[in-house]
């Protein structure tokens, strides 16, 4: 019997917006759309660090005949008006801008990162470090920072972050000696990639990563193939974490007819176990526009991570739990169940796993290691 324990540890009502970095420039009322998808790591003190994505949105984005998006500039945050007649606001997370030669969108919120320190067992908040919040600092981040992941490599903390802008939709890298003070190293991938995360340790002297390049068009597999076309997990390697070579072989692909057939993407940084590299990833089942997100797992060969030793995509490791969000059900805005797993640390007989629940709050799961036998 596997005894997984789950609870929400941090949510939108736990964010003090008077201490938001946006307050320096924007006087209009805002609210927390979600405090979710947190990176997770263990600090030198033994405490845990959640790096929480805070999506801060305008309370009244529509004024007159325009809808407004928040954007960072070197001189402060500004509000950009878009004519209502030229947008589609069907999705609460963004609006589509009509009329261009390519699909374009703007966000209804801007995301920044909030360090939340937890007790070693992940059951209690020790401190919320507003003074160390990470906000946009460059033009390639002017629409915000999303979905961080933290890996410890060679004794240093490495954090990948999805940086959003009209320039590009790429991955930035931050590094830290202590998990507290972070340095922006710059862009490491400049193509659209939502889930780049680094293995916790080198393979053959190289840093390895899971990536998930996105595009508008995917080639179809033959009708007899076991694989489903669309966004999948690929691999890349680097001598220094800054310069990357894609792996020639594919990584984890969605199987045709599975509950992940819509797409798969990286979840937690792979960690080395006796059986190989353990990675938790998300698989998406087609349903309505967003889909149903669940967490699955796979084992990769310790010396050749393109070799998949085991792939568990039938029975989910973690699923969305309506009981967890029942106390804040009035804040839910997604039409389908979503859990998005983003961090893992070793806790003896179990792993402590961090996820975003319903794009709304931070969930902690204590998963016994026996679950992976």
Automatic annotation (TrEMBL):
Record-linked InterPro entries: Glyco_hydro_beta-prop_sf, Mannoside_phosphorylase
GO molecular function: hydrolase activity, acting on glycosyl bonds
Domain of life: Bacteria
Keyword field: Glycosidase, Glycosyltransferase, Hydrolase, Transferase
Pfam families: Glyco_hydro_130
Family per record: Belongs to the glycosyl hydrolase 130 family.
Protein name in UniProt: Glycosidase
Species for this entry: Sphingomonas abietis
Lineage: Bacteria, Pseudomonadati, Pseudomonadota, Alphaproteobacteria, Sphingomonadales
